[in-house]
Amino acid sequence: MDPPANRLILPASAGSISALSEFVRGGAVAAGIAESEFAKLDLILEEILVNVARYAYTPEAGAVEVAYAQAGGRKLQVEIADFGRVFNPLEADPPDLSRGLADRPIGGLGVFLVRSMVDSITYRRDGDRNILSFIFPIDGAPGV
Amino acid sequence: MNIEPTELEKAVLLKVTGRMDAENAHEFEQACDRWITNGTKHLIADLDGLQYVSSMGLRSFLSVAQKLQSASGSLILCGLHGLPRQVFEMTRLIGLFPVFETSQQAIATL
Prior knowledge:
The complex is a heterodimer.
Chain A: E1 6-11, H1 17-30, H2 38-57, E2 63-70, E3 75-82, H3 109-117, E4 120-126, E5 129-137
Antiparallel strand pairs in A: 1-2, 2-3, 3-5, 4-5
Chain B: E1 2-7, E2 12-20, H1 25-37, E3 42-53, H2 55-70, E4 74-78, H3 82-90, E5 99-100, H4 103-108
Parallel strand pairs in B: 2-3, 3-4, 4-5
Antiparallel strand pairs in B: 1-2
Helix pairs in contact in B: 1-2
């Protein structure tokens, strides 16, 4: 990541949600985030962390490495890397949001929400690492 | 997250406050399951104090609503605002639940 980033390594588990959030909020606050946008950033981070824990690592445990840097134009670039099996969450089919209550599938909403809240998100496999990189709009207007 | 139940004549009101995430969403589902097992048909979730919900929380709401529907009951939502309202709208889950501004309005429909 360029410019030089702040980095943190955490266990890939739901127990790391608040530590991950607190760390990335540091960068978002420095970039001028409004407090009302904290929850969106938290949501993105949680969904990615939970997916890594469940699909890249289960049943074994592992770590995630998170890094962030200001991306210019009131945007924050965040990268979340893990060392688990090859797993690209962006390949998942979009959920069918048109179904009624009885047959609405229960899963698949996490990645959908993440995509809706970021400017862009990419996946790459780099050696033994899965790396998800996203651009978060500090002013809460994705796609601008 | 805190869940405070109040038994009403025709429903149970669950006041949910705080943050519902991957770590604790199952607590909401378990609390609802206990009332469903006891024969409660209608659960009203007052979400005025809910500040945050992730997809794991949405799963719990959906799962509880499906169980109640198959028992000819319903999960009624009220007080949705902020990020929780946004995620219910973005996922179009909001159209699958009866939604009211206040718990009084929800109770009046039963």
